Amino acid sequence: MRWKLAALTLLLCWLPLKAQANPSRQMECLAKAVYWEARNQPFNAQVAVAQVVLNRVEDGRFRSDICGVVFQRDSRGCQFTWVCTNATRRPRDPHPWHIAQVAAYVAVFDYIDMVNGAIFFHDTSVRRWSHLERTARIGELVFYRER
Predict the structure, then answer these.
(1) What is the mean pLDDT of each run of 10 residues along the chain (147 residues)?
(2) Helices 43-58 and 23-38 sit at what angle, rounded to 10 degrees?
(3) Which residue(s) pair with 73 in the sheet?
(4) Which is it for strands 132-138 and 141-146: parallel, antiparallel or unpaired?
(5) Check: CATH 1.10.10.10 for 2-146?
(6) How far apart are CA 139 and CA 18, in angstroms?
(7) Pairwise CA distance, residues 7 & 5, whole Å
(8) Distances (CA, A) of 38 to 10, 101, 104
(9) What is the pTM of this model?
(10) Which of 9, 21, 41, 127 is the most buried (most CB within 10 A)?
(11) Where do the domains of the chain lie?
């Protein structure tokens, strides 16, 4: 039974990514973003983080593939803080890593946008970004899109 679920998951997650180069690497980049950004958040918040990455892939101002978006840098630094500090580290906690992988798969396969087109987010310890439109709060994460 376990191998059937694993095979089905891989098939379902591969289909939307088949147009991208190296789909398994793309999924790993997405899962790493979820793990390092939201592993302590509820599952739906983890899926929402993955959706932000996917929304950025569709937005012309960011890179055109998942790994490109996740590891994108500009003059201000990294798009995701963990990339500047932990990018070469493998996830160290097996259970949260597995959950992050599942959240990444759900975001790719499920076409429900819980973040309403958001391309930015922060946790609740950060002061509100007034120059952006708030679209959702899920767990301790707040999501935004441009006005």
Answers:
(1) 48 48 84 95 97 95 94 87 80 92 92 91 86 94 94
(2) 130
(3) 78
(4) antiparallel
(5) no
(6) 31
(7) 5
(8) 22, 12, 11
(9) 0.82
(10) 41
(11) 2-146
